[in-house]
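Lab notebook, bench 4. Still working through the backlog of constructs that have no structural model yet. Next entry is a single chain of 683 residues. Request: give me the structure tokens for it.
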Amino acid sequence: MTRLSLAAVAAALLPSTLPAADPDLAAYLGKPVIGPRHTVNEVIEYCDARIPAVPVLKDANDWRAFADKTRADVLANVVFRGEAAKWRDHKVKVERLGTLPGGEGYKLTKLRYEALPGFWVPALLYEPEKFAGKVPVVLNVNGHDGVGKAAPYKQVRCVNLARKGLIALNVEWVGMGQLRGDGFNHAKMNQLDLCGTSGLAPFYLNMYRGIDVLLAHPNGDPTRVAVTGLSGGGWQTIVLSSLDTRVTLTNPVAGYSSFRTRARHPKDLGDSEQTPTDLAVYADYATLTAMMAPRPTLLTNNATDNCCFESGYTLPPLLRAAEPAFRLFGRADALRSHVNHDPGDHNYGRDNREAFYRMIGDFFYPGEKFDAKEIPSDDEAKKPPELTIELPEGNKDFHTLARDIAAKLPNVPAIPDDRAGVEKWQTTLREKLRSVVKYKEFAVRPEPNGTETVGDVTVTYRRLRIGNDWTVPAVELARGTPKRTAVVLADGGRKAAAAKAAALLADGYRVIAIDPLGVGEARMIHPAGDQREPKFDRDELYALLLSTIGDRLLGLQASQTAAVCRWAVAEYNAGPVRLVAVGPRVSLAVLVAAGLEQKAIGSVEASNLPGSLKEAIERNRSYNESPEVFCFGLLEAADVPQLASLCAPRPLSVTDAGERARKELAGLKAVYSALGTEHDPLK
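Model written out:
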């Protein structure tokens, strides 16, 4: 069987001849250059090479030291960043709000607790009717179930735990049940990230304070603390259990897999909280699993899970990663797994619940009689309205927390009004911006991919190899031998830049239309009809994957764009290029590229720029709408006017600016004037 290279496949897609004249440049700009799956494969390989492996250590003390350091790094550098560092020291407030009729052997109490200032979580406390000293406590978390804490399977589990003599706390999860408001949509946590504050922190504190509540119970045993939950609840379970050593037994159910596994099974990629910024700089989920050693750990997955995290591909990598750590402590028996076959779908049904009860019996009641069979309790599950818990008016959510923080941003000095002051200000901001977006200096290696003639226009197709990991598809249009070069990119991909390309051609420019990462042909998607994976077009989840390994989509877009500009200058020896963006998303990348690449970019044109990054928060936008905008800490470092100021004294043209943008950018004239140039970017 003959195997064709991607270059050969892409070249085969291009016709060998064209009509003598065709004014529709869009048809040629839109032709495939790199082909389907090329970019998503690059993303997978790029991330795979950077996800940290679980170390192989020689003794338990070495492992304990590694786990302690990793735990401290994740908490300090991932969970409690920015304003969240202040939330960490918040003393939990608990308010009991009455009891509900329980059933035989247990009682039920409504309560709420303040996880961080202004953010209250509703919860249900299930207790045995009678206590005989200290008893185990269990934090019960839940996943993407619309009824939240009222999910019947969760109520049944809590009732059983209380009847078996344990204290169970059933907590609400943000975005579900009573916390299902739009401001708690999981893709809104990135509004906090934009402000330089961890959007993961409210998730973590929601769980962590639940343990606080349980251990404040006079009969709670601090040596027997368990956490369990399904799906997103399984994700909560491993995150809390691995980072909070108060947890002494854990049972995540169909809740997570290694980042390496997720990259190749896109249905597992998960929402923003499951792929938080910079987590994989310090730890993979396989690492978090191993960090449970020597504490009892039961990994439960379903054989034919119709949602995610199927046992066949999820469990083996996690167990292989964790088993050596448990053996170092002589506790191989404490790492266990359970696979549910009936019904085998996404569930925490009776079979999975009884596996958890057995784990409880083996490790919390060793040598004692503990009945792991479930006590029938289905008819005791209450309706959601019965379990509603009053919350304070104005309860904080991701959106309102971000709005409060954004009001004080950006943290950047005012622009001076003298030349030396402006230049120093620009230098300082460039250094900060370079760090925030994780900017990289890439070399470019062009790979020709065909040439065609359309009338008097030569169309050249290239795959531009950017560094060692990326490919940017490029289509060059030239009439004769141009003396000037323009690099053009558009939100809708190269084809959407056709009108601008035609105008630049008419003005004597060589036009190089490109699709940087996440745009046009370089979107991170599995196309329809690909038999290896079902269609998957949520490429913002791959952007999250890049962010968790320490990169930023915005920074990669800007780095690739700047690299192409440097290559064009060297290739054609025609001076700095004109960089043109069509659309607000690529315009942001262009501002960053121009701000950090001063030599190769001679002038800039941006369109539809927002007046402020704060608009993403004020309009309550989600990460999936424009993932590059939610670059961690970008608003803390600079807003749109400051980014635009980095272009000066080079010409900047801002077209199709709205009223707010015109108002916010009006001060740019003064910046140019201070640098000795009379220029108005808004004209």
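Notes after review: DSSP finds 25 helices and 17 strands in the chain. Residues 1-22 have pLDDT under 50 and may be disordered. Flag for follow-up if needed.
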